[in-house]
Structure formats: structure tokens, C-alpha cells
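residues and backbone:
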Amino acid sequence: MSTGLLLLLCLTGYVFAKEPPDVDCLVVHLKYVSCSWNKQGAPEINYTFQSKFNTDKEFRNCTTYMSENSVNIGCDQPYEGRSKRFIDFSTKLAHGNKTYTKHHHLKDKVQLYPPVNLTVENGTDFNLWFYWNQTYSGCVESEVRFRTNNKKWESNRIITGRQNFCINLPSSSSQYELQVRSRIGSNCGESLFWSNWSEPVVWGSNNSTDTNQINMSVWTPFLYVVGAFTLVLLVTMLLHHERLRIIPIPVPKPSPVFNDIEDWLQFSKGLKGNFKANYNEHACPVREYCPVSESDSESSDGSTFSVTTDQTDCSIPGNESEDQSTPCSSSTSAILVSSQE
């Protein structure tokens, strides 16, 4: 009997002689405070948990316990207001008449949820754009990691407030896998804790993020060919129906010596004809009278003869009501030669 009692006292002393559980607290997505006390292993007894911010008047009992093998290992307490993490937070673990109190600074102990609504697309600038959404974007900085064809991850830090990432001129024959995580940035009280990595999105030869997405880098040459063919067909139809005439305008080379102004201006045949006279002048031949000497006109038998000279008529244009031509001169001269004895 005494031996059993001694063993019970030893076990009880061992339990209470153990180091009290260490409580760790973290503000989750600025929605609630999650505290746990199983860092050193699951406790052997159930503790009662209470907590409060220093601005609160009294401690609050735990509303939601986390348990493992029917033993409490943590508690989630409501969190109200974004700025409360700058206020000291106190926790209390109690079992029987034993109580363990601890004070916490939650300013840099904030963990956000992973980003959501992840999309990846090939932009109009032929670059690969990766987008996501995160609550409280004005205070959040992000980190993107990606890999090509399942090779080594490459990481890039994104400045606070920005929620996109660009990969310049991706290869259409490669596969890109991207993930992102976030945390509270330095301009809002930097947190030590990053969120978990988001679900991966994949783009490329085995693109599974969007079955309706078309790889523009493959279709772009085809669209260029179709556009060029359509333009040529349209121009051909316009030329065939004479709706469109292409008239090249020659640019003359000025010369200090102008040999032929018409050649320099390069007039068309029709335009040159406009500078020529469009009227005709009728030639009017004139015949002079031929003088006849007296010696030639005398004859031995005293006969009389006549010499006639004519002038050809020429037409002078006149009014339409008048005759087409008026005789310029018409005369018949008779020279009488008489012999005198």
C-alpha cells in the first residue's frame, strides 16, 4: 500500500515538475488570433485558455479549441480591427490551481491567406502576364516564383501594392509554372510570416489553366497571312471595277538649263494638243500680169489679136449667211493691137 502511494506521488510530482507549455500566437489574415501550445509536443492534460488585448478589461474564454487525440492543443480567438496587432496581447493557460500567463507582441506576427484568382495570359505585347488578387493590396508585398519545363524555381520580389508579374517574350514550345505568396509590407508594419504558396498555374505546351485559351504566338503568323491576302484581294477588286486608280506623280529633277520646257513638265499628249492652234489658214496664190511688148504685138498683116491674163480666185471666210467665198479678183484683159501703116 505504501509503495503504490509513493509511486502515485512521484508521478504527480513529475507531471507538475515538467516545464509549462509555451504558447505561440499568430494573427491569421487579420481575422482571428490563433494560439497553440503544442510546440514541445502534445500536452498530457487539457488546459483552459483565456486571452485579452491590453485595452480589454478582462480575459475572454476560448470560443473555438483545436484538439488532437481529445486533448486541447490550441485556440482561435476573434480579432477585431486591423490596428489591434500593435497592442500587446496576453494569454493564460490554467489547469486546476496552476496558471501560466504570457505576453505577446503581434505586430510582426501576421500571416495572410494565399493569393486567389490566379490567371496567366499572353498579352498584346507578346509577353506572359500573371495576375492574382490579395486582400489589403495596399499593404501587401508579394513574391512570385516560376519555372520552365519543370526545372529549377526562379523567384522575384514584387513591390507593395502591385499584383501582376511579367515574363518577357515566352517561348511557345515551353511550359511555364507560376506561384505567388504574400505578406504585410514594411509600410504597414512588416510581418515576419509569408503566406503559403498559392496553387500553381501552368501556361505553355501543356496549358491546363484555361482550356479555351488560344496560344496567340502560334496563331499570329496565320492572322498576318490572312490579313495580307484580304488586303490584296480588296485592292484587286477596286482596280477591276475602276473604283481606285493609282496615278504615280513623277518628281522632276530640276536642271539649271531648260532645253525643252515641255519635256521637263512631261505633259500628256492630250494636254500638249490644247496648246496648238485649232484654226487653218487657206493659201491664196497670186499671179502677176505679164507685160507684152509692142514689138511682139505687131504683125505684118495688120491683124488684130487679144492676150488674156487671169488671176486665180481665193476664198475669204465670211459670215455663214453670205457665200462661202468672195472673188478676190477676176478680170480678163483684152489687148487690141492694130497695125498702122
Observations:
- The domain at 23-110 is CATH 2.60.40.10 (Immunoglobulin-like).
- The longest strand covers residues 175-184.
- The helical segments are 2-17, 216-240, 261-265, 269-273, 294-297.
- The first helix runs from residue 2 to 17.
